[in-house]
Each structure stands twice: as structure tokens, then as C-alpha cells.
Design goal:
This protein is an alpha+beta fold. It is about 35% helix and about 20% strand. Helix 5 links the parallel strand 8 (about 185-190) and strand 9 (about 225-235).
Length: about 290
């Protein structure tokens, strides 16, 4: 009997994905990536829903960023790429070391792996279904920029409003993100590079938007619109509230986002106001309006 139980056990590995928070070096685990000898690769966010008990946007970020990371890892492995070569799709995240894990079966091995995270309730099933939308928390600057662009489009070409805030689903079961605008010839998400904002929010939310754009392009396949890009607001030159150092931070952030975008064959289009973003959207969609 002992020999039989040993034969039935499942072994594997698990790796934490960590997110820095605060200003004194704290980190939290937002997702766990794993592999078992029975079922292959798996990935889970450490929470199955946003945690309202945590301060600010941390509870929402923990869930949404963790879910995004898990989906990206499974997408990567599903394409036959080595798990060890996977890179986190969001700036600022840290990959922990692989740890050995063993359970009675693959499900038990995953449950034990998830129990290693402080934010995962031990009583929660490893694969608890959730209908919550996996949308990255947005900064107030991003929300304001998106609203301003939408208002400009509403005044100039109200027939294009139907293209805003489109759901993106990787599984067909739950919404895993949102695209800010989807048209016949143009797809974009909006970001805001405020050099006075929090560093983690400034990079991670824009990186999350790049991830959604890349996955949307993969889903469209041969029907992908001609232009898929991140539209990033940057402060115009000469504003008294920004110093030379602030403008340098903005430039470096845009360069970082462009480097991330190039890895997915995407681009970053920087603008200094909502009117410029509106004109680009209208110009790229104009030739498709007759359809």
C-alpha cells in the first residue's frame, strides 16, 4: 500500500512573482507559477478577487496584476516556450527562485503551493472560479486622459464612441482586460506618464496596457487592425510645475515603455494633450468609416 501511495504522488516546482510596494523595501507575492509532472504548467494569482481590506489600490493591484501575470505565463508556455525563459510582462516585478513541491496528486501539489502565499486563504480551492473582471488598476492621470480623449472624440466624431472600452477575453469565460479603443483600423490603450506620480503605478499600469494590446493582436490574427499601439500622455514642455529632472524622468519612462513594446512588435505614440490623441484616432479610422 505504501508503494502504491508513493507512485500516485505528484511532484513539481513553484516560483513566486513578487511586487515591490511602499518606500521601505516591502514586497508581496502576487502570483505563483508552477509545474507538475502530471499536468504540466499552471499559474495562479495569489488571490481570487480584489481585497478591499488592503489600503489604497493595493488589494485591487494584487489581484489584477497577479491574474495578468498568470495569464501571460500560461500564454507563453502554451506556445511551447521554456518556462525558465519567461519574463514578467510588467515593469518592476521580481521573480523568486523555483521551489520543489510534492502532493498526493497534481491538485494537491497546487493547493500546497498556493498555501505558501500569505494572501491565499488555506480553505480556498486551488482552482476556484471567479467572474471578476481582471482589469489593471488605473492611475487618476490615466483615467483623466482617457476621459478627455473620449470627450474630444464625442465632439468631433460621435459615431466612433462605440469603439471605446472594449472587453478582451482570453478564455471566453471571464473578462481579462479592457481595450480603451478598438476600431476597424486602430487599437489603442491610453497611459499617462506623470513624472510626479508613483514610480510603480507609472510603469506597471502602462505595461499592463501593452500586455493587453499584444494579446488582443494575437486574438485578432489575420484580421488585426493596421495600427496597434499604446498612446501615452507626457507633460508638454515649459510647465512651471515640472523641473528639468521631471522631464528627464518622463523621457526615460517613455524609453522604457518603448523597449517593452518593441519586444511585442508594438509601438508607443507619445502625445502632450488629448486633442493630439483624438486627431490620431480620427485620422486612422477615417478611411474605415464608409464600411
Amino acid at each position: 500500500m505504501a508503494q502504491s501511495l508513493l507512485t500516485e504522488s505528484a511532484t513539481g516546482r513553484v516560483r513566486p512573482v513578487l511586487m515591490p510596494v511602499g518606500s521601505v523595501g516591502e514586497i508581496v507575492c502576487i502570483a505563483l507559477l508552477g509545474w507538475t509532472d502530471r499536468d504540466g504548467h499552471w499559474a495562479r494569482a495569489t488571490t481570487a478577487k480584489a481585497l478591499n481590506c488592503l489600503p489604497g489600490e493595493l488589494g485591487h493591484a494584487l489581484f489584477s496584476f497577479g491574474s495578468l501575470v498568470a495569464a501571460d505565463f500560461m500564454h507563453w508556455c502554451g506556445r511551447g516556450k521554456p518556462a525558465d525563459e519567461w519574463k514578467a510582462p510588467l515593469g518592476g516585478l521580481v521573480l523568486g527562485d523555483w521551489l520543489d513541491v510534492e502532493g498526493f496528486d497534481a491538485e494537491d501539489a497546487i493547493r500546497i503551493s498556493m498555501s505558501l502565499s500569505a494572501f491565499h486563504p488555506s480553505s480556498e480551492p486551488a482552482q476556484s472560479p471567479t467572474s471578476h473582471a481582471i482589469t489593471a488598476p488605473r492611475t487618476s492621470d490615466e483615467n483623466r486622459f482617457l476621459d478627455e480623449v473620449r470627450s474630444e472624440v464625442e465632439r468631433a466624431r460621435p459615431n466612433l464612441l462605440k469603439g471605446f472600452r472594449k472587453a478582451l477575453s482570453l478564455t471566453g469565460k471571464a473578462t481579462s482586460g479592457e481595450l480603451d479603443f478598438v476600431g476597424h483600423r486602430y487599437i489603442t490603450c491610453y497611459a499617462a506618464v506623470n513624472p510626479k506620480g508613483r514610480v510603480s503605478s507609472r510603469v506597471q499600469t502602462a505595461s499592463a496596457a501593452l500586455w493587453r494590446l499584444a494579446r488582443a493582436r494575437d486574438m485578432f490574427g489575420f484580421a488585426t487592425p493596421g495600427v496597434v499601439e499604446l498612446t501615452a500622455w507626457i507633460p508638454p514642455r515649459g510647465l512651471p510645475i515640472f523641473t528639468a529632472h521631471d522631464y528627464q524622468i518622463a523621457e526615460e519612462t517613455v524609453s522604457e515603455l518603448q523597449a517593452q513594446a518593441s519586444k511585442e512588435d508594438l509601438r508607443v505614440f507619445a502625445v502632450v494633450d488629448a486633442s493630439s490623441a483624438c486627431r490620431r484616432l480620427i485620422d486612422l479610422e477615417a478611411s474605415a468609416e464608409i464600411h
